[in-house]
């Protein structure tokens, strides 16, 4: 694991991902990607993952497993590793996260919220580094609440803000706050927007994403276990957000985009709105609706991937 040369000003070199902490990492005899149950000694990460070009994250393991099956169909790849009749989960040694791989596409679950995302993000950055992946792009493909949008709309994040409307991810390091700007990669954003098609039965829009550390009070819901405000306070707040350009509300975009920018990796976030928060708070588990809608941002990202791979109708 010797370094050949110093990283350039973006932190990376020749399309390879060089973690900001590469010097200390390369002093380790073995690097344990603990929450993925992978390590640099027992696993030949370059052989396993060296051809990865796209890393797609989403909250639920089951959704990300289904996404990898969709990737296989759309990219016409049938030689990926299976575990019985299911795509192999490379993180099966732990039940924290899941990783599936189909050709150049890695499909990773991140759980709920930035703290959960941050752990798997650190380990995936190290994984793509050790695997010597080149020119990787990262995507978060998720769900969200919308503001004044027809439910089922796909929102591509143009700007992400925290629960106080700050455009940076804040982390306490050695007891002191560190701020990392959530800068959106404009080329990836524009490319995803160009992937909407006239025949789509849903709209794809861009906008500001409000990224909360909570699903209930942090998102101005009235249906949590705790709530010390009234309906009119909630509506006033959500209208204020809307007036400031907020289109959707979820829980990871800010950390995801900030960590991509800090790592020098191109990243974008596309989420489908499951409800209009100006109309309702409560989500029911209407599985058929969820199944239909959650595929929408997946398809938008897959169209981008196919364009990058010069694939038409599953053939390159
Ligand atoms: O990617 P998903 O759909 O899991 O993301 C949203 C944001 C939170 O993680 C979660 C809340 O239900 O859904
Ligand atoms: O309203 C919603 C829906 C999905 N995810 C969220 O964080 N909020």
TrEMBL record:
Residues 55-300 form the Nucleoside phosphorylase domain. Substrate binds at residues 219, 221. One of its GO terms (molecular function) is uridine phosphorylase activity. Phosphate binds at residues 96, 140-143. One of its GO terms (cellular component) is cytosol. It comes from the Eukaryota. CDD domains: UP_hUPP-like. GO terms for biological process: nucleotide catabolic process; uridine catabolic process. PANTHER family: FI09636P-RELATED, URIDINE PHOSPHORYLASE. Belongs to the PNP/UDP phosphorylase family. This is Nucleoside phosphorylase domain-containing protein. It comes from Magallana gigas (Pacific oyster).
């Amino acid at each position: 694991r010797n370094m050949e040369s110093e990283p350039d000003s973006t932190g990376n070199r020749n399309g390879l991902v060089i973690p900001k902490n590469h010097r200390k990492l390369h002093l380790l005899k073995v690097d344990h990607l603990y929450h993925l149950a992978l390590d640099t000694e027992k696993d030949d990460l370059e052989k396993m993952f060296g051809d990865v070009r796209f890393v797609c994250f989403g909250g639920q393991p089951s959704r990300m497993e289904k996404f990898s099956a969709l990737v296989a169909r759309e990219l016409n790849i049938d030689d990926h590793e299976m575990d019985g009749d299911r795509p192999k989960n490379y993180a099966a040694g732990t039940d924290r996260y899941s990783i599936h791989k189909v050709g150049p596409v890695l499909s990773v679950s991140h759980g709920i919220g930035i703290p959960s995302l941050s752990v798997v993000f650190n380990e995936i950055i190290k994984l793509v580094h050790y695997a010597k992946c080149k020119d990787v792009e990262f995507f978060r493909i998720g769900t969200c609440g919308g503001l004044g949008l027809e439910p089922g709309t796909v929102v591509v994040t143009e700007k992400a803000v925290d629960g106080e409307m700050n455009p940076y991810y804040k982390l306490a390091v050695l007891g002191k706050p560190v701020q990392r700007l959530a800068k959106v990669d404009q080329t990836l954003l524009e490319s995803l927007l160009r992937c909407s098609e006239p025949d789509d039965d849903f709209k794809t829009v861009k906008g500001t994403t409000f990224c909360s550390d909570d699903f209930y009070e942090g998102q101005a819901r009235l249906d949590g276990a705790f709530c010390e405000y009234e309906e009119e306070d909630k509506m006033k707040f959500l209208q204020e957000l809307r007036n400031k350009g907020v289109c959707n509300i979820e829980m990871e975009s800010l950390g995801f985009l900030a960590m991509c920018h800090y790592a020098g990796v191109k990243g974008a976030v596309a989420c489908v709105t499951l409800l209009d928060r100006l109309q309702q708070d409560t989500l029911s588990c209407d599985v058929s609706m969820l199944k239909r809608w959650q595929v929408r941002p997946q398809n938008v990202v897959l169209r981008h991937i196919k364009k990058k791979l010069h694939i038409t109708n599953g053939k390159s």
